[in-house]
TrEMBL record:
This is Programmed cell death protein 2-like isoform X1. GO terms for biological process: apoptotic process. One of its GO terms (cellular component) is cytoplasm. Pfam families: PDCD2_C. Residues 245-350 form the Programmed cell death protein 2 C-terminal domain. It comes from the Eukaryota. It comes from Carassius auratus (Goldfish). Signal peptide: none annotated.
Length: 359
């Protein structure tokens, strides 16, 4: 797919552990934990199509489309069975939607509203460059009413993401079988890729960067030098010898400004491939099974996420291995009125190029 002229790319990074004492909601962007359900949704826990084990929740993304009246949440699940690792069939993507009126109909007048901020709630898509406006300006600009239960105050991203006060009785989380691993919960903070020049690394982010460099056998400096035109042949070979793959080298150059990114979002945009594909991925993505519309790329999970996916059970060594996971969703984001079941979307898993060395 050709890149859009003004393609907006949003970057998700880990923004701290979710305190067990704080409730999250469907409008929380997060890693791990159990998915938070929209009030009208009932989830039958998904299982792996390869081994029939229950799937673990990997990420939850609250991503309402700019011109749509629907709340919209996407949850990604994966099988932790090592035999299923790296296979698209062992992943499931579920999209849930509902109208604000459906939520209000189920709310008690005394329920404390969610005060999560517009930054963590975020329009991940077309109007992302309108962040920073006040609520009235966003309504005027987008023509879409921001849900009152998901608006907050404050300028610090971390404090906004963690400033949740949803009532415990109103919290609805998916039930999960006891034998299904649960990953440690982290908030996801969001920024535009064009703002990364001013991004300030924290100690945690530097730790992730060092781990990524060690795992991939190449440093950010080497990647930058390869793309600067000033690299020697020896430097170039050092940075690319591990994989010998131009696609991988291009991938590394693109993410080098923020290697700790765990998610890239660009609705109907262009994915970053981590390795050459046997066939054209775009042509192998099936149309929506419900309305027949084509699916478009929406977001992808990035290599830095792998190191964060550890079980809440400290005695467990369960983990996931992947290079990147590409998520495609219905272009029309179709939804049947009154539906209580999520719509299954499509994921393409590209393994880390290193994995082929061990097969």
């Amino acid at each position: 797919m050709a890149a859009a002229v003004h393609e907006t790319v949003l970057i998700g990074v880990c923004d701290g552990v979710i305190d067990k004492k704080k409730y999250t909601s469907y409008c929380t962007n997060k890693i791990g934990d159990r998915p938070d359900l929209l009030p009208v949704i009932t989830l039958q826990h998904p299982t792996c199509s390869l081994c029939q084990r229950g799937l673990s929740h990997v990420v939850q993304v609250y991503c309402p489309l700019a011109a749509s009246p629907y709340h919209r949440t996407i949850s990604v699940f994966a099988c932790t069975n090592p035999h299923c690792s790296g296979k698209s069939e062992s992943w499931i993507v579920l999209r849930s939607q509902c109208l604000e009126d459906d939520i209000k109909a189920r709310q008690d007048d005394k329920t404390t509203p969610c005060t999560e901020s517009a930054m963590s709630r975020t329009d991940w898509c077309d109007e992302a460059d309108d962040w920073g406006m006040d609520d009235e300006e966003q309504v005027a600009e987008n023509g879409v009413q921001i849900p009152n239960d998901c608006i907050g105050e404050g300028n610090d991203v971390s404090s906004r993401l963690q400033d949740l006060c949803i009532d415990g009785d109103h919290h609805q989380s998916a039930l999960q079988p006891n034998d299904v691993p649960v990953f440690q919960p982290f908030y996801i903070s969001v920024m535009e890729e064009t703002d990364l020049d001013g991004f300030h690394d924290t100690d945690h982010e530097n730790e992730l960067l060092r781990a990524y460099e060690e795992r991939e056998g190449v440093t950010v400096e080497e990647i930058h030098s390869c793309g600067s035109g000033g690299a020697t042949q020896e430097e170039y070979e050092k940075a690319t010898a591990k994989h010998g793959d131009e696609v991988f080298t291009s991938f590394m150059k693109k993410i080098s400004l923020c290697p700790e990114q765990v998610l890239r979002y660009s609705w109907a945009g262009s994915p970053l491939f981590i390795s050459e594909t046997v066939s054209d991925v775009i042509q192998t993505v099936p149309v929506c099974a419900h309305c027949g519309s084509p699916r478009v790329f929406e977001f992808q999970l990035m290599p830095a996420l792998v190191s964060l996916l550890r079980s809440v059970d400290t005695d467990s060594d369960v983990s996931l291995e992947f290079g990147t996971v590409l998520v495609y969703t219905c272009r029309n984001s179709c939804w049947k009125s009154g539906s209580a079941a999520p719509v299954e979307e499509f994921a393409v898993v590209q393994p880390d190029p290193d994995q082929k060395l061990f097969k």
